[in-house]
Amino acid sequence: MLQLGDEVTLYSVVFALVLLGTRSPVWTTALTASLYLFLTMFRFPQVPTSRALQVLHPVGPGNVSVVAHRCGGHDAPENTIVAIRESSKNGATAVELDLEFSADSVPILMHDETVDRTTNGSGPLSQMRLSDLGKLDAAAKHRLRDKFAGEKIPTLEQAVEECIKLQLTIYFDVKGHPDEAAAALKELYKKHPVLYNTSIVCSFEPKVIYRMRQSDPEVVTALTHRPWSLSRLGDGAPRFSSPWKHRWMTLLDVALDWAHHHVLWKLCGISAFLIQKNFVSPDYALYWARRGVEVVAWTVNTKVEKDYYQDVLQVNYITDSLVEDCEPHY
Ligand SMILES: *[C@@H]1O[C@H](CO)[C@@H](O)[C@H](O)[C@H]1NC(C)=O
Ligand SMILES: *[C@@H]1O[C@H](CO)[C@@H](O)[C@H](O)[C@H]1NC(C)=O
Ligand SMILES: *[C@@H]1O[C@H](CO)[C@@H](O)[C@H](O)[C@H]1NC(C)=O
């Protein structure tokens, strides 16, 4: 769905900025026209609304979908088969799976680039083969490690098969490796066509989503965003101690935020926008609804907040726990 207001704002801002910078009406017109052509020629249309709705509201259009973050990392060891089963048992409608790769290029579930935080091993994933990963205890660092001892790091294939069996919707979270990830996911969709109706590919990196749609335009996708993420950490603390670097990054944050809301969503043809929960309001949800995009909030971890997202905002939310209030896991 195209908003005329959007288009006018986009090109007016670009026109004004370029004119200010170049003082040349000719260059300004040429650049603005090029941007228009680029967006028109290279953007991907959104998938049909009916399919996006199936993915985002598997229970029904009026029902908020509850997504277990990293498969519900508070209730069980994150990104494991047992966590997928616990999430399903505790009423999640969807799980978020973090896609990574072993050194021998097998797609697996892992949030970090090293195994240190979650397992009893140590070192970067890029140096560990699947057979090495198979020896690790994925529950080793979890608060319930005794209950879940010996849980393995699953391959993407194993995790997806479990989700299909339990009829859970999947939010694939892809951090990097645009080409590898798009190829692996394309293969997966080919093998399990039901995923077109039951999963969504999400990333902080527009490049990943664009690449995904290039390799298979039928896949439902979302961009993930946290305003001020370049200059600040998840808890709000500045990322850089140098004040100049901080200011520069803050400026880039403004540009990135603007690009997400005005250009990137359209270029990628996303169906949902996953945003840090503090930025969601009724007006904000409406902004996206007008563009045919649904807001999904992360990470919503208390009962009071969950009720608010479910009953007042009616916005899907991602949570670390299906059973109790807990601290956020960034
Ligand atoms: C779906 O929404 C309806 C109406 O709000 C509600 O009565 C029903 O319990 C919901 N179903 C589930 C499974 O949450
Ligand atoms: C990690 O735990 C598993 C299962 O208990 C064990 O077999 C393995 O040797 C341990 N690996 C390391 C590096 O400690
Ligand atoms: C996806 O959903 C549509 C509409 O419900 C259905 O016709 C189609 O067969 C489904 N595709 C798969 C692969 O399950």
From TrEMBL:
The keyword Oxidoreductase does not apply. Keywords: Membrane, Transmembrane, Transmembrane helix. InterPro entries: GP_PDE_dom, PLC-like_Pdiesterase_TIM-brl. It comes from the Eukaryota. The chain crosses the membrane at residues 12-39. One of its GO terms (cellular component) is plasma membrane. One of its GO terms (biological process) is N-acylethanolamine metabolic process. GO terms for molecular function: glycerophosphodiester phosphodiesterase activity. Residues 64-330 form the GP-PDE domain. Belongs to the glycerophosphoryl diester phosphodiesterase family. PANTHER family: GLYCEROPHOSPHODIESTER PHOSPHODIESTERASE 1. This is GP-PDE domain-containing protein. It comes from Zoarces viviparus (Viviparous eelpout).
